[in-house]
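Open question from group meeting: does this chain pack into something compact, or does most of it stay loose? Before anyone orders reagents, we agreed to write out a predicted structure and look at it together. Recording both the input and the output here so the notebook holds the full record.
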Amino acid sequence: MEICDVLYSLVKSSIGTQGIASYSGEQLYKAMLLGRHQGISAIVFDGYQKIKLQLPAIGQDVQDRLKSEWLSDLGTSMHSSEIIHQAESIISEELKKNDIKALLLKGSALAQYYETKEFRQFGDVDIYSPTDFDKIDDILKRIGNHYELECYRHSQCSVNGITVENHFYLTDARWKKKWAKLEDYLSQEAKTYLQKADGTGLLYPDEMFSIIFYLYHTQAHFIYEHISVRFLLDWYYLLKNCKQIDEVELETCLREFGLTRIAGYVTAMCIKRLGMKEDIIPSFISEEAKRVNPSQLKRFEDDMFDTSHTGFTSNSFKDRFNRIFTFYHDRWKINEFLGISFSQFVGQKVSAIYKKQ
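Structure tokens returned:
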């Protein structure tokens, strides 16, 4: 059995879609290491805890080693979560003093949909205000360390030892027209929501914003780098625990912004690997998932477990030049999800950068 299959089974045990399995100590240990790499150690350990009574007898030394390392991972995750929430509280209190509202994004926002939110591992804080970027920046400069504005999309500093990104843009708005339209849509959604929201400080976004931003962010992450099983869990819990979504508006938005394809892929993966039930999936996304070519879905999944992926750490000319080789190697992603060729993609990116300089 492939280790990724063991990993998925442990994940399914945690989320309650399957709980019976039989593995060797070696398989479990390798699955633990893979879960660590995929950023889901807490979920995998929870799954192990739920199925361990059904496992064949394995040596006590192996059980002790597994438990020790998993508990260490869980402790690290919980400690990191506590420090992050402390940083969020510091920022939120400062925003309240200045009568400012802002949204929490990405990991912190998505964790709210998990059954146990501490299981959603993440390492930094992303915030966004459609109207008060400069005011928030002034606050972060005062309470934070190592402030910089290297990327046009956000500023960055450290608060309580945690990296904080204050977003001016939510998307790569300077590149494609549809991303500029998506930027306008998300900005207006955020503005309307924050105007109606009670209180000030850091707030969680509503479900429509969360779904659309998740899909954009996942697609961008997949094209520029890669995604992990954690992204699948985000989607699973997001759909499972959404309370009220206007499917007509959602379908209109996803089709207009070119996000139905990525929605189909992550949904197909969740159905296949996490046991996602169709009754929690919007019908048009379910149909899109059924249209995904099995061979392309395998390619999508293989990329999730490709350990050769490396992130891009700067916007230097050298780093940008190196990205071109990565984009060429993974040009199928550009064609499949953006519907353009590699040369069109590079040409449009270069043109967008040139026009802004």
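Observations to bring back to the group:
The longest strand covers residues 145-151.
The two ends are 52 Å apart (CA to CA).
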